[in-house]
Every structure is written in structure tokens, then in C-alpha cells.
Amino acid sequence: MTRSQNKEIKRALSIYLKLFLNYIQMISIIQSLQLNWPFYVGNYLNIYSNIGGATTQILSFDCLVQDHNIKTEMIYIQTVVLLSIPFTIILVTFLILAIVYLLKRSSQIIRMIVVFVVVSIFLQPAIIQNLFDNITCTNLDNINVLQANMNIECDTDSHQNWVFFLFK
């Protein structure tokens, strides 16, 4: 096998792996929507959701908010923090790679692109799940409440402003 054929095989495997990971993540997001799936579809989705792991519980801020008497609802704080994690990781990586560039005088663009892609792939399910948690409402005693936090009414101006801020 020649060197160019070996590179082509590695490139193809890399693409297939990315597609497979994206597939698993999207299946776990679909499963988390909690629709009324038929039994066999629900079982199929549960298998992949355990692998894909769309979880928004990366960091717990309950104690921090309770200790500092912050009036903002926890789900809103989690959303802001979760949305800022990719930017923070990319910014820190950019600073580190800039220092490496200054020391070695070698291009770090490929590494920056790799960090961006990896961070995007691994945080995508958690971010999408969290955004769905902010807009999924249910009717409870003729009041629309947020399914993730039933203390929040979906029809209030504060929640509508929050949703508008997220999806603006």
C-alpha cells in the first residue's frame, strides 16, 4: 500500500467516525425530547442515548447560587455557563497556541481547527439539550410551565425575554 493510499484510507475513516459520532449524538438528542414513541423505537433510541450522552450536568452551580443568594433561576445560569464553555476553551487554546507560535515560529492553525472541531462535536448534544430544556413547556393545571423547572411559567414576560435572548 502506498503512502497516498494510506492517507486516503485514514481520511475516509476519519470522516466516517465523525459522521457516526454525529449520528449517535443526534439520536440521543431526539430521544431526550420525550415524545410518545412506540415501544420498539423508544428502546432503539435508549441504546444510543446511553452512548451519546447528551447531558447538561457538566457543572453544578446549585450551591454557588444558594450561597450567594442570586435571584436568577438555575436553568438560566446553567445555559449561560454551558454556552460560554466552548468559547472559553477555544480562547484559552488560542492563547496557548499563540505562545507556542511565538516560541517556535511554526504555524498552529491546523491545531486550532482541530480543537474547534473536537469541542464542537463533544459539546453539541449538551448545548442543544439545554436549549430544548429552556423552551419545552407542559400544561400543569391550566398553566404552562417549563418542563425542566416547573417553578418557571412559560407565559411570563421574564421567560419570554429569556427565550428571545437565547434564540435571537
How would you describe the overall organization of this protein?
The chain folds into 2 domains: 1-54, no CATH class; 57-168, no CATH class. The protein is 71% helix and 5% strand. The protein is built from 6 helices and 2 strands; from the N terminus they run H-H-H-H-H-E-E-H. A hairpin with a 2-residue loop joins strand 1 (137-140) and strand 2. The chain is flat, with a radius of gyration of 21 Å. The mean pLDDT is 77.
Give the SSE map:
Layout: H1 3-32, H2 39-52, H3 62-68, H4 74-104, H5 109-135, E1 137-140, E2 143-146, H6 157-167
Antiparallel strand pairs: 1-2
How many domain regions? 2
Calculate Rg over CA atoms: 21 Å
Percent helix range: over 70%
First CA to last CA: what distance?
52 Å
Shape: flat
Question: Which sequence of strands runs across the widest sheet?
Answer: 1-2
The proportion of strand residues reads under 5%
Q: Please work out how many helical segments DSSP would assign.
A: 6
Low-confidence regions: none
The major beta sheet can be summarized as:
2 strands, antiparallel
Q: How are helices and strands ordered from N to C?
A: HHHHHEEH
Number of strands: 2
Mean pLDDT value: 77
What structural class do you assign from the helix and strand content?
mainly alpha
